[in-house]
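Annotated sample (chain length 231).
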Amino acid sequence: MTAAPPLSPTPRSTVRRAPARARTDRAELYAVLDAGLIGHLGVVLAGAPVVLPTGYGRSGDTLYLHGSTGAATLRAAAAGAPVSFTVTLVDGVVYARSTFHHSMNYRCAVVHGSARLLTDPAERLLGLEALTEHLAPGSWTATRRPDRKELAATAVLTLDLAEASVKVRSGPPGEDERDLLAAGSPDPVWAGVLPLRTVAGEPEPCPLLPAGTAVPERVRARAARWAGGTP
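Output written by the structure step:
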């Protein structure tokens, strides 16, 4: 298998603030996108920026987005307007000895480019499969596929991952020397990291299900991964 090419910064995707946190391994881009569930699509509408949350899916170097054919943001993106798409995962709250150095541990991916509206029926189904499997693995083959009416109401777009950046912060707080010198006082200020993770609860069945319907393995497997903090 050919290794994925590294991220190649462009003027838009170059990390300028805290550049030491930038990552150039494309595998880290994939990891952030695969771990997230919600991204934010940014596009300019009528001269003003609009940023909206949306689900997504990934296949190789292609990101799939979808929504109502009536959504103004998707219509603008489909018409060729430049877009950005961001996924952020918060891993912890960083407590420092000063207010200024409080922070977060995080992983963040930002993708720039122009989206393409899918019109080929086979491509559209592949995109919807990627979206479904990213959210709920195993559901594409276990549930009813979209019918013609549902497909007609759904816009499916692709966004190439060629122009993207990844930024990561991890570890303890950064501190000023004056605050470290004060750490030996009788009443020191606590500093450290409060880790955060998303976990799954017990699956809650739809009230319209027949009594005793078992939770399928695909749902239990997903819950087990989230229970361990892994998406």
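Annotation: The mean pLDDT is 92.
Annotation: The longest strand covers residues 82-95.
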